[in-house]
Amino acid sequence: MQMNDSQRIPASREQVWAALNDPAVLKQCIPGCQSLDVTAPNEMTATVVFKVGPVKATFSGKVTLSDLDPPNAYRISGEGSGGVAGFAKGGALVRLESQGADVTVLHYDVDAQIGGKLAQLGARLINSTATKLAGEFFKSFADVVSAKAEAG
Amino acid sequence: MNDMTPTREQRSAALEGMGCKRKRVEDIRFTQGKGNYVDDVKLPGMLHGDFVRSPHPHARVKRIDDSEALKVPGVLAVITAETLKTVNLAWMPTLAGDVQMVLADGKVLFQNQEVAFVVATDRYAADDGINKVIVEYEPLAPLVDPFKSMDKDAPVLREDLAGKTSGAHGPRKHHNHIFEWTVGDKELTDAAFKKAEVTIKEMISYHRTHPSPLETCQCVCSFDKIKGELTIYGTFQAPHVIRTVVSLIAKLPEQKIHVIAPDIGGGFGNKVGAYPGYICAAVASIVTGKPVKWVEDRIENLTATSFARDYHMTTEIAATKEGKVTGLRVHVLADHGAFDACADPSKWPAGFFNIVTGSYDFPTAHLAVDGVYTNKAPGGVAYRCSFRVTEAAYCIERAMDILAQKLNMDPAELRLKNFIKPEQFPYHSALGWEYDSGDYHTAMRKMMETTGYAALRKEQADKRAAFARGETREIMGLGVSFFTEIVGAGPSKNCDILGIAMFDSCEIRLHPTGAGIARMGTKSQGQGHETTWAQIIATEIGIPADNIMVEEGNTDTAPYGLGTYGSRSTPVAGAAIAMAARKIKAKAQMIAAYRLEVHEDDLEFDIDGFRVKGLPEKFMSMKDICWAAYNSVPPGMEPGLEAVSYYDPPNMTYPFGAYLCVMDIDVDTGVYNVRRFYALDDCGTRINPMIIEGQVHGGLTEAFAIAMGQEIRYDEVGNVVTGSFMDFFMPTAVETPHWETDFTVTPSPHHPIGAKGVGESPNVGGVPAFSNAVNDAFSFLGSTHIQMPHDFWRNWKAAKQLGAVA
Fold first, then answer.
1. In the Enzyme Commission scheme, what number(s) does this protein have (chain B) (predicted)?
2. What is the ipTM of this complex?
């Protein structure tokens, strides 16, 4: 499954980049995120509650940042297992485009894969759910960053 | 005779024998909710088992940790392949000569494969335990597309077969190849194609689907440690075969295994095979010393126990310009999933697919089938059809329509031109079968006259013209299908399962008061055997059907039989009933002769007793003969009146039928409406017309489901995406069309009562009728073949591709 979109954020590219690398911000913005702990530079472990249609499960797994090109782009990828509910893995290529000193456009290009019961029961819902979750993440990310920029 | 003496018609009617629309006796309990199914079996101290299943279609199993699961209150044991290895049961043989993992042994090969079996005091605790079993997987590249199975760089699925260049059915060409099966004369067929005036070629797929009985597969295993006896209650279409298989693989003496199949809520082929659940429940009972129940849920049933079909059939017909067929060439790519657990008689790796010449007189034909492994669930059962017969019927019936289209001929006319003629029976087909009897022209013409076929074609032409003028957005299709089935497996010369010939059996015991019991090797899953078997006995012996109790499903009391599937019950066991009844009748005649003081040759059977020829007053009823059998038999004769017959059929039977589907499709939405469906079936002698009609209704409904949407679909990474009734089409009364049924009667010449079997005909003939209707509707827009299933979305997509929708 693939999707891409962009989000306009009223903050400078450097501010956005900093937030993208801040586990506290990520934790706040990932829908259903229960915990996010840094285990090594650019590596985190996460616990996320994920719900697709009738299946709800707690996923625990690894989140990795790679292909870092500060302050322009990186790749965030993760994979997690939800026990009997199945597994999910995927990533997003995130690219920042400056549109003036206080405006940044965040482009994202997501590919994701699910397996197990999630895929069996949720196949028809997965695209809309994923689009919704990605939208939620980047929307709250934009909100958090712009609030920080205003405060800062 | 006084006025109270019943007439011959009244006496005959009182028997409720063959030809009577006798009401189903089993329905007295079913309609009151008093059936007794496996899930109703509740034994003292019974435990419940359930599976940890793989979310991955292909992965290495690195580690299984059950320590947390064992801490869950109520969880008693977690069984893994390592546990099973201690009793040599980590793998089990399949009916197709392959082996199959009972629990994942180092690797998983399909999504939802059984990985561990959690045993607990109740089902809830077992499910909680499953959530706590930690399995570490290393995902491997999945192989989903069967057309890529034999690619050079295709992943190796079956590491256990490494280095094995031959399997149960001959040489293997590739590490994911199972078998190649060829039939027919290749040279002659190639020559026919070389000089053909007209040829067609099409890849016709029959998608993967599932029998999906409403009651899923289940069992209760109870091991008595003191007696060393194992009792298995299970949803078994073939209980004796299960007993023998369990004895062979669990090394238990066969007399100490008691298999009981209680009432079964539909089978359709799904309940023929042996599944990991049965083995695990048995082992769990042996380990714990308590009865263990295993009941599949719906997702497990759809995704793990035996699928059906998944045949990709490249089909070619050679013909003259006038439409006379001269050759048939078919290559099948058969997707068997991760293990070859196909339920076919041993010598038939592709079942009876060589019935693919259908109802037509092909002078020559050649067939090759390649079976391959993929990362999908194992199976390949005959879903309401004889072994691979519905695939064959679909293949030839689609191909004949494609040929008709190419020749610009009416598909019904093309069929009439090529039918095997009545005088050609018994007919030897180019691919090796001997068709017992048939009158195809009469059946086809009756269908055409009854439905007003010519007028429907005229209406279709008018509608197409109106569509071209832009006056309607609806297109109309006529789906003609004329099928020949091959059922009643089968003669011991070519049919066996695990070396056991595919006979079937009946034991009849008559009681002193003119009643009796018939015990059978078959097992009804809804076919109404308790009703129809008694009707055969009633006509044969002259005891009212109501006085005969039919018992099936207990291997301790029933004579050995190969079970119920492939429309074999009436052709094989139905014959055994008649033969056992005739043995009884012969003894009854001797008793009657003795009591009436005449020579037995002077007696003739008359409905419900024996009469002295020429002396109508001298009569002894079967009821009286039954009494006499227990107190005054002729000197030297043993008392009692019972007989057993094991019937080895001399040939298969070949039911046939002519179907027509009239369908309208809205091109803008893809929504179809089955306006009319007419089904004429010829199943030879008809035992109970009401039950036949019910069988036809059920089979047509399943055919409708399959053709119009029912599918087990995998996504490109090996997830089953149709794992519940939300996505797997199960028609209800809302979607199901109205069925018109009709018949002709062409008895089987070799069957004692001339019956051929009917349970599966409507599925075999129905699927091509629906698909041909859709294809016929779209054909004038330029398409030759649209793959099934024909759901609304695919119809809309077809319309779009053909330019009918902007």
1. 1.2.7.4
2. 0.84
